[in-house]
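Q: Structure tokens for this one, please.
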Amino acid sequence: WGEKLSSHVLGEYCVAIFDDETGTALLAHDAFGLVPLFWGRTPGGLFFATHLEDLLAVTGTSNLDEDFIADHIANAFFSSRRTPYRGLERLEPNASILWTPREFKEVKGKGFGLPKGTRSEVRGCPEEFLALLEEGVKAAARATGPVWCELSGGLDSSTVLSMAARAGTADLGAFSILYRQYADADEARWIRLVLERFDVPWHILDGDSALPYSEVPDRFCPEPGLHLVDWAGRRVYEEMAAEHGVAAVLTGQGGDAVFLGIGAEPYHLADLARTLRLRLLFAEMERWRSRDRRQRSRLYWFVNYVMRPLLSRLCGQPIVPAWHRDPSPWIRPDYAKRMALRERGLGKAISGAGTIEGSWFLERLSAICGQAARVNQIPRSFDFRHPLLSRPLVEFMFSLPWEEKFDPATDRPLQRAALAGILPDEVRLRRTKTIYDQPCYEGLRQGRSFVGLLTEDPLVARRGIVDPGLWGEAVAQARMGRTHSLPQFEAVASLEMWLRQLEDLESGRLAAPESPLSRLSTLSDRGLQFVIDRKTKMELKSPV
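A: Here is the predicted structure, written as tokens:
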């Protein structure tokens, strides 16, 4: 299939294919980019890897991309083709690279959605939904060792565990992080309801003893991210998985975006206005207004779900801004202006969806897939897998008519209907969502070493990103449970820790990534030299 490979091959993967006869290489990954692929070019050829640190021996860490840093601050962990290092890029989702010693070409895959001719037949049938869900989980659960399911007590993680258990997954276990000291974050009651229905071994990480900001990372991380502030939990997580020989961990990530959960809003109203179906527009708008618990006015619904999305589409902007559009007050105004943080904070517009509601769906999907790809680089002994982001399941949900996806009375109508009799009704019909802000703030309150690194001559202040006095006040306020924008605070905190790691790497206080060139996949004018599987450290002597 050549450059169209990701349109045909399902799963979470990254692949390099070298044709020795023609001297052509194809680099590709899954359509959602869940397995990242980083690459760069030199006069001698192309180099690439699934782990960013494996390429730093070629480029070094001194030439940083200031646009990446600005995107990171403005969009709070949103991923783009940029990396922190000039000369290295991230292959975008649904893209591939064709390379020969004489030619380089980056190619985008085909559009997203079901094949033409089938769209009119797609209906929100619970049986078909359940079949696609089971297929996605069963495929993700194939592994050469024990498989764990993250179980948080929410509907999505409970859905994944129930499907894996029903499929008879061998050596299946549940994994949970419990915060028993914080009422808003304690999910034990909901988790036990699921485990009473599906009797699988339960592995518990005590979150109270591994709070965010409680441990300074002791391992180099090639880019900033939440893992840098949540290192204690990540470290214990990996140790537990390695101790049990876990091969894969299935997550419920992506459910809110795919099944229209928290944050699902009726942007299909703008499509009704765009196509001049005015009678249906006002009837549908009234239906949403009458079910609104907050009793917001007709003007509210018209402005926010008709006028604003129509204007965003006209201006080529995303339907919904990514996070806070305005930078936090501790960010220096001159930096915010110079790096256009307000404009970056809009996020990324998605083209080609056809409808406004479809564009909004793909924007949410793109954001969650980018976050998942970043996390996928962290574990050394197992793979994260995301069955709710199975392409057939996502395309099925994307292609459903809006009237079968949106219900003002409840979110996730199809998911809740399909799981009747499978999940306990208390979990299946649950409307609350756990908030993990409290452990984060408590970790800051207790983590004196971490707070000292954030506030004692911070590198983000030296680089002119934050005002040192206001940043110090922001850290003090966060220790008392108050922030202007927690995602942006965490983005800058992780940036500070990453900058310090680069400084420690240069001075020798932090160990460099082990033998990067021994794991580097390199193409030159002599063809494929070698490929290394990072998980098994096995050298493949011949092209694959």
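A few notes: The first strand starts at residue 14 and ends at 19. The two ends are 16 Å apart (CA to CA).
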